[in-house]
Amino acid sequence: MKRIALFPGSFDPFTKGHENIVLRGLLLFDEIKIAIGYNSQKDHRYFKVDFMIEKIQKTFSKYSQISVISYSELTAELARKHGANYLLRGLRNTTDFEYENSIAQVNRHLNKDLESVFLITAPELAAINSTIIREVHRYGGDVSALLPYEL
Ligand code: ADP
Question: What CATH number is attached to the domain comprising 105?
Fold first, then answer.
């Protein structure tokens, strides 16, 4: 049976930290579906979903095992639809751990076949944070070193 993992997140924007989690995930899974979650009722995103899909697709164009989708439903439900038995997530620090711990419990409650798998961030990428990148970009700062594609 194919090992399919979902890598869900806001990815607003997708960073070099996220890229590192995906590339390391390829050693564990046959397929990784990067899933950009958004709220269809109120879209507060800084980078539009379609724009981000295009950038992520370009980043991984060499890899046929990696695809990108967007969704506006329960992650556990999306995983079921895509035959994914694994949720891939990254852990930077204890704040991430607290948050991830509760989401993983809920997701397993909602979908018994879903196992969350966490990769510890590479130390040189641990400080990369989408919120800070948005702020720097908003005021005209150069964020190109933190992203795996050109804006
Ligand atoms: P969410 O809104 O679901 O937290 P994010 O786009 O912020 O979505 O993050 C998606 C996943 O990537 C989360 O598991 C998060 O902990 C992880 N992540 C975020 N930044 C980094 C980074 N610099 N290195 C590794 N993992 C990261």
Answer: 3.40.50.620
Q: From the CA of 12, give the closest atom in ligand 1.
A: 6
Q: Please, which pLDDT band fits residue 43 given cuts at 50, 70 and 90?
A: confident
Our count of domains for the chain comes to 1
pTM over 0.90: yes
Q: Is 76 exposed, middle or buried (0-12, 13-18, 19+ CB in 10 A)?
A: buried
Specify if 148 maps to a domain: no
The finding on whether 128 has its CB within 6 A of some atom of ligand 1 is yes
Which residue is it, tokens 């989401």?
103
Question: Among this protein's residues, is 130 annotated catalytic?
Answer: yes
Distance of CA 65 to the CA centre of its chain: 15
CA angle 59/77/19 to nearest 5° reads: 20
Does the beta carbon of 18 lie inside 6 Å of ligand 1?
A: yes
